[in-house]
Write a structure and sequence with these properties.
0% strand; 44 residues; mainly alpha
């Protein structure tokens, strides 16, 4: 299995400066999803 890509979210304020987006993921539904998230964290 390979991770082919990932999405990032960038939220900016009215001045174009980075701002928290408060996007959160729900808990992984299974072991495969948990492993994929752990692998993605290594990329970031």
């Amino acid at each position: 299995m390979r991770i082919l890509g990932f999405a990032t979210f960038i939220h900016v304020d009215e001045n174009g400066r980075p701002a928290p987006h408060n996007v959160t993921l729900p808990e992984p539904e299974n072991e495969e999803e948990r492993m994929l998230r752990e692998r993605a964290k290594q990329i970031i």
